[in-house]
Amino acid sequence: MSRKHFLGTILFLLTAWVVQAQETERQYLSGTGLGNTVTWQFRVSEGNNSGRWSKIEVPSQWELQGFGEYTYGRWYKKPGVKNPSMEEGTYKRSFRVPRDWQGQNVRLWFGGVMTDTEVFINGQSAGPVHQGGFYRFSYDVTDLLKFGSNNQIEVRVKKHSDNKSINAAERKADWWLFGGIYRPVWLEAKPATHIERLAVDARADGELKVEVHLQGTTGEESLSMEVAPISAKDAGRRPVKVTKDSVQLLTAHFDGISPWTPESPVLYRLTVSLLGKEGNIIHSMDARIGFRTIDFRPRDGLYLNGTKLVMKGINRHTFHPDGGRTTNKELSIQDVKLIKEMNMNAVRSHYPPR
Predict the structure, then answer these.
(1) Edge-to-edge strands of the sheet including 281-289?
(2) Nearest CA to 24 among 220, 353, 278, 274?
(3) Quick one: which of 312, 307, 306, 287 has its CA closest to 7?
(4) Are 247 and 240 in contact (CB under 8 A)?
(5) Is the pLDDT of residue 227 over 60?
(6) Rounded CA separation 192/316 (Å)
(7) Could you give the CA distance from residue 199 to residue 215 in angstroms, rounded to a whole number?
(8) Does the structure show a pLDDT above 70 at 235?
(9) Do 130 and 150 form a contact (C-beta atoms < 8 A)?
(10) Would you kindly state where each structural domain of the chain is located, as residue ranges?
(11) Domain spanning 31-183: which CATH class is it, in words?
(12) At 102, is the secondary structure helix, strand, or coil?
């Protein structure tokens, strides 16, 4: 296999990376990663620099910012040690929301927090406590915001989860245990009637199924989809009437597609648009997709587009000495290049990587 091409994760073969179109606006409340951060107010309950308000960079792991205590994952095997360090951290900052966001749907997103997270906007709870350190999560904060004015966010984080199964899955392992908001925090604004998300199944023969999750529709809207730069064999681009159900299924067949393979990783841009009664675009969403068919055959192996693949890969953690689990795009690219230099075509991870 050529070193210029990389299979990526098996999970990536089964999903598409979704990006929002211009109608979705994003505002970061933090930086974007290691080397790009925003200062918040911070207080930790125990360990180094505890018990008083100070400042911290977000995103980061608070141990690497001089707070709390370092803990290694094998704590539960040490004689006489019942629990690891169990600090709790509180984050605060103020932020402004554009006045023209009023009337839109606004969600607050966290890329990753270790581990239990409780969020307040202007003193009001944003929703249930989120448990689990490796998954992004969000809250609908539309009704909690002051548009065109200052707002306050408070995030309370427990390094050690109250959920025993979370600790068993994420913390009883052979790695460093960190705390804090370690991935970006941002706001997303969409029209009140909008596309929430897409689930895409694009097959090697050109068959395409798109599950469209909607919010705020009345039944008078319609959907259309387009794949560039190829043309549809059938009427895939014609508007399809939306029912009052929140999930719609679009299907089409596309001629002349080039299937995705490790040697030829051809991608296309799928655009799904939600149209108003008069045919105007209310909201649209883009996804970069590859047409490919994955087949796991028992006692045989993995087939891609009908061709058997021999997997050669390693496990990769999202980790860096300077930031812990706070990394950035440049570091991920460095890791990919290193794996390619080892002539590998696959990588696995215990958790969703950055």
Answers:
(1) 17-20, 281-289, 268-275, 222-228, 240-241
(2) 274
(3) 312
(4) no
(5) yes
(6) 39
(7) 15
(8) no
(9) no
(10) 10-21+192-294, 31-183
(11) mainly beta
(12) coil
